[in-house]
Amino acid sequence: MERIACFILLVTYFVVQSNGLTEANYYTSPMNKIYYIEPQNKYNWFGSLTECTRMNMSIITVDSAEKTKDLNDVINTNFKDVEKPLLYIGGSDMADNGKYVWHSTGNEFVYTNWAEYEPNNFEDDEHCVHIGLYNDGTWNDVKCSLKLGFICEVNKNEPQ
Ligand SMILES: [Ca+2]
Ligand SMILES: [Ca+2]
After folding, report:
1. Host domain of residue 110
2. Locate the C-type lectin domain: which residues (predicted)?
3. Which CATH number belongs to the domain containing residue 57 in this structure?
C-alpha cells in the first residue's frame, strides 16, 4: 500500500514538473488569497493567461488598494533578498488602446496604481500591465510579447 502511495506521489510529481508548474510557486497571502507567482521571464502576456487557465486560476486582477497591499506583502516577504521579479498582471488595453480592462472580470480600470509617467504606451505598442520594475509595486505598460513572469489567483467566480 505504501508503495502505491509512493508511486502515485512520484507520478504526481512528474506530472506537475512536466506541466512546468511548481508547487513552491503557490503563496497564501495575508488576506488569505492563493496566488501563483511564476518569477521567471518565460511567458508573454497571452502565455501567462494560458498558464493561469491551465491551473484553473485567473491572471490576477488588482482592482483595489487592499489587493495591492496584499500582493505587495506576498512579494516583499517571499522575494526579499532577490531582485524583484517582473510579473504580468491581468490588465490590458489591447482591444481599445487607452481603455484598460481586467481580463478576469471584463471591467474597465477604476482603481489604478500606475507608476509616474506610466502608462506611456511607448512606441504606440504597449498594451499589457506588469509590476516589478518599480519597488513600490506600481504598474508599467509594456509590449505584450515581452517575456516576463506572471501572477495567477484562484478564480473569482469560485467559492473561496
Ligand atoms: Ca496602450
Ligand atoms: Ca510603459
Report:
1. 26-154
2. 35-153
3. 3.10.100.10
pTM of the model: 0.85
Q: How far apart are the CA of 9 and the centre of ligand 1, in A?
A: 45
Alpha-carbon distance of 145 to 143, in angstroms, equals 5
Neighbours of ion ligand 1 (CB under 5 A): 93, 97, 121, 127
Ligand closest to 126 (CA) is: 1
Q: Per-residue pLDDT averaged across 61-89, rounded?
A: 96
Q: Do the domain assignments include residue 114?
A: yes
Three cell numbers, residue 42: 518565460
- Within a domain: 127: yes
- Mean per-residue pLDDT of the chain: 90
- Among 12, 137, 7, 13, residue whose Cα is nearest residue 65: 137
HEC assignment per residue over 17-31: HHCCCCHHHEEECCC
